[in-house]
Amino acid sequence: MLNIKMLKPYYVKEDKRFIRVVLAYQYFSLFIDNELYQFVPMESREIIIDRNRKRVHNVFDIFVFQRGKRMVYVSVTDLLQLPEFLTHLNSIIAPYYESEEQMYKDESLQEELEELVVELEKENLRRLIDQAIDNNDRESFLKLTETWNELNKS
Fold it and tell me: Which residue pairs, CB below 8 angstroms and at least 24 apart, start in 100-109?
């Protein structure tokens, strides 16, 4: 029977497509049949999460755990069957998804602000055109209507 004693990342590396949870010797240990085994980075040493799918990418990788001279090989697939492993992993990667979600919120807010600025510029231009008409200022009227036409083309 497998139980997680400790799962802490050595460090977390992220890029546009993946979040990589890099593991090291002292940061990952399991109880296997009530005996404590330490992770040793012999084969695989990271858990790779696909940002788009929000799934573990390297499910067929093997982690090696050692107790004295005994070695146990555990696949990522086997680890994913453990609810406590998923809990630990989710707590590690959650901040990386939150920052990504915040980034998308910030981008949509920025787009909304840009649209608002364009609308305010149009309203201001309408007022200036009205003012030019009220003052019989033909030159300003022509210049402002030309600007209005260019603004509405794009």
Answer: 100/51
Cβ neighbours around 111 below 10 Å, total: 10
Q: What is the DSSP string of 117-141?
A: HHHHHHHHHHHHHHHHHHTT-HHHH
- The pairing of beta strand 18-22 with beta strand 11-14: antiparallel
- Alpha helix positions (H), the chain: 76-80, 83-134, 138-153
Q: Give 30: exposed, middle or buried? Use CB within 10 Å, 0-12, 13-18, 19+.
A: buried
Non-local (6+) Cβ contacts of 138 within 8 A are: 132
State pLDDT tens for residues 103-134: 666 666 777 778 888 888 888 888 999 999 99
Q: 151 and 125 in contact (C-beta within 8 Å)?
A: yes
Using CA atoms, how far apart are residues 92 and 94, in angstroms rounded to an integer? 6
Cα 25 from chain centre: 27
- For the chain, the straight-line distance linking the first and the last C-alpha, in angstroms and rounded, comes to 65
Residue 143 in tokens: 């210049």
Q: What is the pTM of this model?
A: 0.61
